[in-house]
Amino acid sequence: MAILERHTRPLTTPAAPAAAQGRTPAAAYAWAAARIALGWVFLWAFVDKLFGLGFATPAAKAWVNGGSPTTGFLKGTGEHALGGFFSSLAGQVWVDWLFMLGLAGVGTALILGMGMRVAAGAGALMMLMMWAAELPLVTNPFVDEHIVYAIVLVALALSHAGDTLGLGAWWSRTALVKRLPFLK
């Protein structure tokens, strides 16, 4: 009777070492710095539009003084391909609230490193809508800062950037996130 030898091999190949995947300590800190910096971009836009600190928003146009945080940008899209649609949204209360909550939420989540998936999705959606509002682009036929920000937001979530210099690792171990992983 012949004995059949069975050669088996793993169904998956072993994962490459972390360094080979670009997950070095230096890369982790670089992604963390990008996360915090981009978070500050969002959070600062919220604070400046809320109080009109005189940077992008003068005090007279502050949200707390009755100004609309969306009117300036959206009214300026009238000549663009989708300008009619976006101009019609300018100054609407629900749009102002959604925009401001988005700026504050995305900025806070990025700075803290918590809720990176939701922040990346919401922030990328905001950036893509702002990109679409400016079509056709003046300085480049396709890519502007909104597209770059959207890509970086997704990369931050995929690289677990919230785990370094942030609360992401702790947040991912909470019962809430274990039950609802999309909140990671």
From TrEMBL:
Transmembrane segments: 28-47, 118-135, 147-171
Keyword Membrane: yes
Keywords, ordered alphabetically: Membrane, Transmembrane, Transmembrane helix
Superkingdom of source: Bacteria
Protein name (record): Thiosulfate dehydrogenase [quinone] large subunit
